Amino acid sequence: MKYREGDVVVDGTRALVGRVRVVGRSFLTLTRPGGAEWTATPENCWTASPEERASITLRGAVQVISTASESSAPVSPSS
């Protein structure tokens, strides 16, 4: 798949979502808002879902974390 600068993808090798900063012949340079930067091969990446795209923004990350904590809350035993 062809990726362009600015696309948001999932790096399956690292299980991280990042924004494409550089597209090389055999690599992508990905970044996260906090400044993290790494390279990945296009074969190990796929287009991020809307939820994954939202997770790289502060507002989206808060929403994802809050949703995850609700779904992982312990279930109280019935009496």
What's the SSE blueprint?
Blueprint: E1 8-11, E2 16-23, E3 28-31, E4 37-40, E5 45-47, H1 50-54, H2 58-71
Antiparallel strand pairs: 1-2, 1-5, 2-3, 3-4
Q: Any overview of this molecule?
A:
A hairpin with a 4-residue loop joins strand 2 and strand 3 (28-31). This protein has helices at 50-54, 58-71, and strands at residues 8-11, 16-23, 28-31, 37-40, 45-47. The protein is an alpha+beta fold and 79 residues long.
Biggest sheet overview: 5 strands, antiparallel
- What is the first-to-last residue Cα distance? 54 Å
Radius of gyration (Å): 16 Å
Counted beta strands: 5
Number of helices: 2
Spatial strand order of the main sheet: 4-3-2-1-5
The residue ranges in which pLDDT falls below 50 over 5 or more consecutive positions are: 60-65
Helix content: 10-25%
What's the pLDDT, averaged over the residues? Answer: 82
Order of helices and strands: EEEEEHH
Into which percentage range does the β-strand content fall? Answer: 25-35%
Summing up helix and strand content along with how strands pair, one would put the structural category as alpha+beta
The gross shape turns out to be globular
Oligomer: single chain
Brief overview, please?
The protein has 79 residues and is an alpha+beta fold.
Task: Name a few traits of the molecule.
single chain; 79 residues
